Amino acid sequence: MVAFNAAVPLMTVVNYSFQETFSNNVFTWEGTRWFKQILRSDRFHAALGRQFLFTGIILFIQIPLGIFIALTMPKKGIGVSVCLVLMSMPLLIPWNVVGAMWNIFALPEIGFLGHTLNDLGFDYNFTQQTGDAWFTTVLMDVWHWTSLVVLLSYAGLRSIQPAYYQAAEIDGASRWAVFRHIELPKMKKVLTIAILLRFMDSFMIYTEPFVLTGGGPGNATAFLSIDLVKMALGQFDLGPAAAMSLIYFFIVLLVCWVFYNLMMRNEAQT
Question: Per the database record, which ranges form the ABC transmembrane type-1 domain (predicted)?
């Protein structure tokens, strides 16, 4: 049933990607025309570049930050439960609500963030300035999803046997040496999963930035997913949109395949 539900929409998209669709339900065969058009399109290249840039920034910030927070969390006592609950709370908020919250929070006139930054002398307006829109979008995603990295990293830390720490203490190892030679290698599997999940989430992000900025100002935050929706539903170019969605799908599939092979290689070595 699951395979059937996944196959039907996928085959529909594949069908549209090779045809021209008219309003009177007339279809004409176009072959690979739409794929060539998308791959040569400056619009697609720009959206793909923005998508990779956003994903790279997110991974660069969230992975080290998540590890750092996990290292500072308590290992026992009631503080463990409190920290886990607090870390889980952002993950429970629906994506559209997160976008709406940050839209209000960052408004330059009435939002706490926007009003505070302007009071400090910054000319902040995420609705009109590209840099501010990117800053707000990245900050929103860091707030929303760093907790996932924290929880995975903390689980990896808790799985390390106490004997490793005892041996390091006997040898007089520094805190950095313990992290580098014990904790980080033992966390390799969970960190690979964290990077994979955050890559997929950030590379396919749509709801939060769409609610926050609508892809603006201009096309500054029109990531690949937002540009795809505009093409399919805004312009009703179903053929090019279908081809673009398949290219999008294969990019994600390729990266996931690379990560999977890295995980299997690391597991074989250990």
Answer: 48-259
